[in-house]
Every structure is written in C-alpha cells, then in structure tokens.
Amino acid sequence: MTPSTTPSARKQLLAIVLIVVLALVAGAFILKSGAPKATGEDTHAEAGHEEHEKHDEDEHGHGEEEAGHAEVAMTEAQIQAAGITLEKAGPGVIRSALQLPGEIRFDEDRTAHIVPRVAGVVESVSANLGQTVKQGAVLAVTSSVAVSEQRSELQSAQKRLQLAQTTYAREKKLFDERISPEQDLLQARQALREAEIAVANAGQKLKAIGAQRTDGDLGRYELRAPFEGTIVEKHIALGESVKEDANVFTLSDLRSVWAELNIGAKDLAQVRVGAPVIVRATAFDAQAPGVISYVGSLIGEQTRTAKARVTLPNPDGAWRPGLFVTVELVSGEASAAVTVAADAIHTVDGKSVVFLRVPGGFVPQPVDVGRSDGQRTEIVGGLAAGAEHAAAGSFVVKAEQGKGSATHAH
Question: Looking at the domain 111-252, which fold is it?
C-alpha cells in the first residue's frame, strides 16, 4: 500500500464508481422508455401521410368526376368547320309509327307470262334475260303446223269470198237487165254472205292464237311483247319443241313494283287503304314514300295475317323484287311542349344529356327524355323551351368532351 492510498481516498473512488454505474443505468432506462414514444410519433406521421394521400386521391377523383361535366371549349369558327347545327328547344309533334315487315314483289298488274298458245318448234330467239323490250317487239319465232293450217283455211276462205263476190256482181247485173230470175240473185247473195263469214271466222282463229295474217311462211309464229317491260324469266332455246301452254317468257314492267306486307290481326285496325307510308330498304340506305293500295279481306289460317301492299314507283330500278323492306305507317300524333332533334341526345356517364350552347363552347346538360319517333324527342325535364343546343353534328362535341376528359385523367 502506497502512502497516498488512504481510507478516505478509497471511499472517494467507490463513490465515483457508484455514480458512473447509476448514470449508465439511468441512461439505459431513458433509452428504453423513449423508443415507444418515437414509434408513436412515427405512427402518427404515417397516419397523417396516408390521410394526406387519401385527401389527394379524393380531390383527384372528384376532379375526374367533374371533368365529365366540364365545359367543352369551341369557337364559332370551330363550330362552323365541324358542321354543328345550333337549334333551340321548342314544342313539336311526336308521331307514333307502326313498323311492318315487307318484301318487294312484281307489280302483277304489269307482269305477263308469255305462252305460245300453239305447239311448235323454236326457230329463233331474239330476247335475252334481263333485256328491256318495247311493246310489240318480237321475242321469239316458232314454226307451227297448227298456224299453217289456220292460215291455209283463211286463204281458202278468201278465195271463196272473191268467187262469191264475182258471182253476185254478175247475177245482180243479169237481174237488173231482166235476164236472170231473182232467185239466182238471192242464191248468189247468200253465198257471198257465207263466204264473208268464213273469212271472218278464219281471221278470228288466227287472232285468238296471236298469229299475224301473212302471205309468206304459213307456219311462222311470232311471240311478241304485250307491253314495254323487262324479261325477268326465260325458258326457251333454239330448236326445242314447245307446247301451247308452256311459260317461255315472263315480262314485267319494273317501273312499278309492289311492297307486299303481312299485317297481324291486332294491327289491322290501323291499316287503311290510302294511308301514307314510308318504305325503307333493310339492306341499304334507301327510302321512298307511298300509300297503302290494298288490304286483304281474309286472314291466313296458318300465318294469322292479312295481305296488304304498297304500289311504289321504280323509275331507277332500285327496288328489286325479293328485297326485304320495312314499311313505316304513322298511326298517331301527339304534341309535346319541349322537343329536340333525336340526334341532339347523347349518353354521358350513363345519363342522357344535351350539349347546351354557352359563351365559349358547350356544356353537357342532363335531361329526362320522353317519347321519340326517331326524328324528334320529347324532353320532360332538365331543359327549358328556347334553350340553344347542338343538334346535327353534336357528336363532334361529345368527341371533344371525351378528349378533354382523357387529358384531365392523364
């Protein structure tokens, strides 16, 4: 033991060591108790961050929702260039129409089934399928024994008539000169009358079969067009033998056709002769006005429908037989206080809207729609009479609105 190591010095050293140990213990306790506090602050900070992000998301979603109803900016020049028509909402008439299916058919009043009426052998055919021919045009020529016999009979009757005329003239002269008795004159007159009847009878037989009187080929038989029309069917060929009742040609004047309809029993009360209709093609964009020209009196046992037809002018040949059509018959009319063109109605976010004209562009206005006939649509709520809006070409406004919404979302 050194002289400096005294009992008082040792006490001081122990006190220092004790203080250091207590300081270490206190520091450890402070660090242990401070860690949960820091964690709580971090949790609060993260919660605040999530709340901030949620708020941002809400603001972003709300902005996107409002973007669907935002104004579509368009200048007057842009409106004119896009072909957008501006109209004002106002009163109008909504027509209720009956849509009836139909089919274009030949006008049977202007369709002929040409038959030879006498048997023969085909010598020539001058008409082709689809060809338009004039009235009286020769369609085909046959050689017929029956026609030859009829012409021979006519020629014989004509010769007998000439002889009877000569005989009667001579007997009349002799009677006038008191040379021949009256009885001979009467007999000559009777023979003349009989000869005239024979000629007329032979001529009527030729006329009945449609043969012409000719001094040339006695068996020549010509098939002629009874009116101007188009050859729609052809069943004849060179050299074949045809019977007297064979349908060798079908000729139809396609400048007029029928739209034939099948009317159900429940709709018959609305279909009247003379009622105006619109005929529309189902295969292409074409329509034509017409009137109901016939309504059948009987209902079919199988179809339970009645026949009706519309006579349609067809100068350009666009309405071809066999074409399916839809016939629209206006069955009633009703007035509406506020109407817009059917093209002015659009669907945005599942709602019907009309693009109102505002300074600098358009704004989508939600509306409640009522009746519509495809031309005008009734507005029952959301739009007042006189409101200016985009009508024809308004789809351009909707397209511009869609572009704006997409840009905002991006």
Answer: OB fold (Dihydrolipoamide Acetyltransferase, E2P) (2.40.50)
